[in-house]
């Protein structure tokens, strides 16, 4: 794969150029969406329905979860059609096609990491200290990136063969968003322990949101169970993504 590093870098640079071409604000646009959503949910749960969810500095609580979700969802949506978008390249050259969806996720990672770094600074300033758990953040981001890449390989190769995959994915992500612990924490569900466990463990994105929020927003160590889940989910997603992609790779040049 080392000899294809240049191709990967060029794909990432091309995606970045296309993403912000003609944009005055550039990277700042990545912050607009979570800020708008943060403002809407802060108004709903912080002002209209203040008794449902109670967390100090609730806008920061919200924006950490929103950033993780937006990175994950935009990575999958962008990767779904990436092989078809690069169809001419797939048909003309023989190379590891995995680099195409991986490049899409990497572009999302660059913007996600840049904005998350700003949020880390704000959260640390609000708490008044930099806490040791922040040392775990790079590992959590790496696991989240691997998880997204693994699923991106799955949706991209499936969409190349079955063009309904991307619309189905877009439809699934909407309820998935509201079932994810973005504007609430699973611990807020105190009356039904089974439902709380489903929210925390049956949703594969939830532990990633919880872990990053613990480190960035709360300045605390995630529980060992959450860390183990995050690591296992990342490894499983990559393994399954690579296996499926390579199994279906042979006919890609024909179907795209």
Characterise this structure.
The protein has 12 helices and no strands. The mean pLDDT is 86. It is globular, with a radius of gyration of 19 Å. Helix 3 packs antiparallel against helix 6, helix 3 runs antiparallel to helix 10 and helix 7 runs antiparallel to helix 10. By secondary structure, the chain is an all-alpha fold.
Radius of gyration: 19 Å
Portion in helices: over 70%
What is the averaged pLDDT score?
Answer: 86
Question: What sort of overall outline do the alpha carbons produce when their principal axes are compared?
Answer: globular
Quick one: biggest sheet?
none
Terminal residue distance: 23 Å
Low-confidence spans: none
Order of helices and strands: HHHHHHHHHHHH
Give the structural class: mainly alpha
The percentage of residues in β strands lies in under 5%
Query: Treating each run of at least 4 consecutive H or I residues as one helix, how many helices?
Result: 12
Please count the beta strands (DSSP E, at least 2 residues each). Answer: 0
Strand and helix layout:
Elements: H1 5-20, H2 29-48, H3 58-80, H4 82-85, H5 87-92, H6 99-127, H7 137-161, H8 165-179, H9 193-202, H10 206-218, H11 224-248, H12 252-255
Keywords:
single chain; 256 residues; mainly alpha; 12 helices
In short:
The protein is mainly α. Helices cover 74% and strands 0% of the residues.
């Amino acid at each position: 794969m080392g000899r294809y590093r240049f191709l990967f870098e060029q794909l990432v640079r091309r995606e970045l150029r296309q993403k912000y071409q003609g944009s005055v604000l550039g990277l700042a646009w990545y912050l607009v969406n979570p800020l708008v959503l943060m403002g809407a949910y802060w108004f709903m749960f912080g002002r209209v329905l203040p008794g449902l969810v109670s967390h100090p500095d609730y806008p920061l609580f919200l924006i950490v979860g929103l950033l993780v979700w937006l990175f994950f969802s935009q990575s999958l949506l962008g990767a779904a059609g990436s092989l078809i978008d690069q169809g001419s390249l797939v048909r003309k050259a023989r190379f590891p096609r995995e680099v195409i969806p991986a490049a899409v996720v990497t572009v999302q990672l660059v913007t996600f990491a840049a904005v998350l770094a700003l949020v880390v600074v704000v959260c640390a300033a609000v708490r008044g200290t930099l806490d040791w758990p922040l040392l775990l953040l790079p590992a959590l981001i790496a696991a989240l990136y691997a998880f997204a890449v693994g699923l991106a390989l799955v949706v991209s190769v499936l969409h190349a063969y079955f063009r309904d995959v991307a619309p189905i994915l877009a439809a699934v992500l909407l309820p998935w968003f509201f079932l994810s612990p973005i504007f609430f924490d699973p611990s807020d569900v105190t009356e039904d322990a089974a439902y709380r466990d489903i929210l925390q463990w049956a949703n594969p994105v939830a532990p990633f949101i919880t872990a990053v929020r613990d480190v960035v927003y709360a300045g605390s160590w995630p529980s060992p169970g959450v860390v183990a889940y995050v690591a296992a989910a990342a490894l499983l997603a990559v393994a399954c993504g690579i296996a499926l992609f390579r199994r279906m790779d042979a006919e890609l040049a024909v179907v795209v």
